[in-house]
Amino acid sequence: MSIEITRLPSGLTVATDAMPGTATVSLGAWIGAGTRHEAAELNGIAHLLEHMAFKGTERRSAQDIAEEIEAVGGHLNAYTSRENTAFYAKVLSEDAPLALDIVSDILQHPTFLADELERERAVVLQEIGQAFDTPDDIVFDYFQETAYPAQALGRPVLGESHTVSGLDRGALWDYLRGHYGPQQMVVAAAGQIEHAHFVDMAAAAFAHEDFASNGVTDPAAYRGGDRREQRDLEQVHLLLGFDGVGYLDDDYYALSALSTLFGGGMSSRLFQEVREKRGLVYSVYSFHSAFLDGGLFGVYAGTGSGEVRELVPVVCDELAKLTLGVSEEELDRARAQLRASLLMSRESSSSRAEQIAQQLLIYGRAVPIDEVLAKIAAVTVADIERVAGRLMASAPTVTAIGPLAHLESAEKIAARLG
Questions:
Q1: Buried-most residue among 60, 109, 274, 380 (CB within 10 A)?
Q2: d(CA 359, CA 354)
Q3: Is 50 considered catalytic here?
């Protein structure tokens, strides 16, 4: 196994995945804090902090940050999710010290200057407005909020206009120092990297003075429900879903296989029945979003205002059929898709750095590739049927945006699924 892990006295976890023969290194810091770790009045602060980290430090201006990484042909980026935030770079191997210095600098010594904060706040407010104007985007936020109402796990990653407008410099500092501590962070690298040297660099770069690690969250409490928004659009954007499973659940791989065979590709049941045979949609697929202690299984479809009348019964029928059985051939295809996707991702240093960091945050260890492949291979037809029944036993979540005159009531949809 090419993965090596060191835990520093500070509590910081440093991990590497060596890829001999490559000329590059992907590295970064993954923090076990995201939207789920925000108070209601601070919704959007993790995402705003992600933006503000690039807007200048005590040693570098925003322009300096951009110019230094691009002067060596590197790339620097970040993302915020409901449970994590990540800051990462990809550079030639000889430029790894510079990339790590920039990442550590923006996470420990940002200035959060008032004028930069106002500019970036305006950018984020535009981003929120753009998401609202993109129905096949915002419908997923509605889906999350409906499934997990009145809890942090259901709030939008971008935040809402009224909460983002109220976030000040002090709130950013409090969130940074309260959640970006060493025990909640993994610094990982993959590519042409030597572990001992990278550990020394990380130990020197991340002093973590006065930073705390606060990963406490309320437990996921799936509720389900119905939310519809009438809009004058060409299509209905529809999501139908159920209580899923978390990363630590024994059924995680079975549900991943179920989602793949049900709506994960052109050979899937959904694609074949809904698009190929009936021509009811352009886009239809299923997905499984996992969290530490819960998850969501869902089906997305974009269809016409008239076609939705036929679409919903067909999707409900196909969901019900999952509990009656799947063929070994279908399951073989799903297992092959999952296996190929995993192995193909191993060819990317960025993916490998991401994988090891996420595994350490979720499981507290690196999971050997053979172990994951064995769990995929072990999924049986009986597992699929059992997990399908588990899904269907939960209350459905329905969200829709568009011309909804022909969309069935929530009660009728629930009756079809019952």
A1: 274
A2: 9
A3: yes
Pairing of strands 13-18, 185-191: parallel
List 239's β-bridge partners, or say none.
300, 399
- Provide the sign of the torsion angle of the four alpha carbons 351, 354, 357, 363, taken in this order: negative
Give Cα 215 to chain centroid, integer Å.
17
Q: Given a cut of 80, is residue 399 above it in pLDDT?
A: yes
Question: Residue 1: which pLDDT band, with cuts at 50, 70 and 90?
Answer: low
Tokens of 155: 């709030």
The answer, yes or no, to whether residue 208 has pLDDT greater than 90, is no
What pLDDT is stored for residue 310 in this prediction? 96
Average pLDDT over residues 139-161: 98
Give the model's pLDDT for residue 136.
95
Using an 8 Å Cβ cutoff, are 320 and 392 in contact? yes
Distance between CA atoms of 255 and 249, rounded to whole angstroms? 10
Crossing angle of the two packed helices 135-147 and 114-132, in degrees rounded to 10: 90
pTM above 0.70, yes or no: yes
In this model, does residue 283 exceed pLDDT 90? yes
From the candidates 4, 38, 50, 354, which is the catalytic residue? Answer: 50
For residue 159, give both structure tokens. Answer: 């935040």
> Three-class SS of residue 128?
helix
Instruction: Give the amino acid at 383.
Output: D
Give tens-digit pLDDT for 84-140.
999 999 999 999 999 999 999 999 999 999 999 999 999 999 999 999 999 999 999
Looking at residue 2, the DSSP 8-state letter turns out to be -
Of 266, 71, 39, nearest to 151 by C-alpha is 39
Distance CA 188, CA 50 (A): 18
From the number of C-beta atoms within 10 Å of its C-beta (0-12, 13-18, 19+), residue 332 rates as exposed
Tokens representing residue 412 in the block: 């009728």
Tell me if 142 sits within 8 A of 398, measured CB to CB: no
Whole-number Å distance between alpha carbons of 388 and 38: 33
User: Per-residue pLDDT tens for 301-318?
Assistant: 999 999 999 999 999 999
Residues 6+ apart with CB under 8 A from 116: 52, 55, 56, 62
Q: How far apart are alpha carbons 206 and 10 in whole angstroms?
A: 9
Measured between alpha carbons, how far is 214 from 211 in angstroms, rounded to an integer? 10
Distance CA 322, CA 274 (A): 15
CA distance 72 to 75: 9
